[in-house]
Write a structure and sequence with these properties.
Helix content: 25-40%
CATH topology of the largest domain: FAD/NAD(P)-binding domain
Bound molecules: flavin-adenine dinucleotide
Number of helices: 13
CATH class of the largest domain: Alpha Beta
Distance between the termini: 10 Å
Strand content: 15-25%
Shape: globular
Number of domains: 3
CATH superfamily of the largest domain: FAD/NAD(P)-binding domain
Structural class: alpha/beta
Number of strands: 19
Amino acid sequence: MNQLNNTAVHTAVIGGGLAGLTAAATLARAGKSVLLLEKARHIGGRALSQQRGDFTLNLGPHALYIGGGASDILAELGVAWSGHKPNLRGSAVYQNRLVPMPGTPQDLLATNWLALAEKAAMMRLLWRITHTPLESVAGISLADWVNEQTRSAPLRHAAPLRHFLHLLARTSTYANAPELSSAAIFLRQFQLAYRHNVRYLDGGWQTLVDGLRAAAETASVTIHTGARVVSVHEHPTHATIFLADGQTIQVTAVILAVDPQTASQLLPEQAQLRQWAATAVPVQAACLDVVLRHVPHPDRRYVLGLDQPLYFSNHSAVAHFGPDGSVIHVAKYLPPGASDAAQDEAELEAMLDLVQPGWRAELIERRFLPHMTVVNDLARADNGGLHGRPGYALPHSQRLYLAGDWVGPQGWLADAAIVSGKRAAELALEEIERSRDWEIAPEIANLSIS
Ligand SMILES: Cc1cc2nc3c(=O)[nH]c(=O)nc-3n(C[C@H](O)[C@H](O)[C@H](O)COP(=O)(O)OP(=O)(O)OC[C@H]3O[C@@H](n4cnc5c(N)ncnc54)[C@H](O)[C@@H]3O)c2cc1C
């Protein structure tokens, strides 16, 4: 890494995922000098894609929600992407066999695994889901909400309806913790997907990482990879950042765009941060990503588990990830707590066997990711949902800010990461403008780093 010792800059952003990149680009576009410090060799965090042979693979299935905050901010920052809507008409796995899955209201009426009364109840429910204000269900658990919605259904209809609602909730939130999860995150994601669908991105999410990097560098952000921050000290007039290689950096403001446990380790005296880190419930998934030469059943593009927390999608049927061949993501939505990686892998393979029998003979690439953290902390009902998450400014601090997919009252998944990056940067900008540090460190305006 380049020499940074005694460097004085307006802001340092710790973490080069979507949140950190957004924060850095926002600050630099407002004319501030910004250092972005990323411990890994590559920026991008969980949004990066990896090259496997001729194919680009996201880290598990990734779909961009439209209209939830991220897409607008990406546009503001000039990040271009091309993407396509998946056809949400597909199949469901129910009692180990494939049944048609209603992807539209018309499909719902046509499906034969729901009785007429169930279809009518489901139509009423879908209308309610799309018209319920999110605040009204923020403190209600998904399990309670689903039970309430299906309470009046005749006994034999209630179970399939519940299964279907939980399927929709898992697919749109990634969370598999209905007793804990706030119903609001499901309603939020469903309302977005219902209005705008989602997009699978050509070239994978690396296009977002590359676009954000370009926006940041065009605005003169200095990006350092292989730069692990080990501690942050706040002083009355500035903050000092300590790196693993012994270097230190003085800054006016710091945005910590890392996970809650790392943020707490960097600032051990912050009691509230310690509490957030200790009580966080990560949303996790086991992912089997495969590239097949030919897909045995090309018509089976999108299959979700109705009575099992499983996902299958042929992303190449929708967007471009490489030449001939298909990138397929299979995932299991993990419940909180320990999981058995071998068992999860076997279930994912069984899903592929059911949906695409013969897939093994067509295999070009295969990657199993047993414990991917999709979101660093679940928005819990007992915490008031998204409003229970930490704010963008750290309490009792003048110059320390938080960003990431576990921060702030807005957004879920990447929406939360990108929105929090922008909001943390805006608050830091206000502080920098207020700060008198300008007067004691005038050289920072003409910063150059060797
Ligand atoms: C399997 C999977 C599927 C997903 N699917 C979707 C989807 O369909 N739609 C959607 O919107 N979102 C999806 N997401 C979520 C989305 O990818 C994340 O919410 C987002 O990428 C998180 O960005 P972030 O910047 O908050 O965190 P991260 O990407 O985790 O970035 C944090 C960065 O901080 C760095 N860091 C940590 N400690 C230090 C340190 N001490 N010093 C310096 N750097 C440090 C890390 O190396 C990392 O690069 C998915 C995630 C996964 C894993």
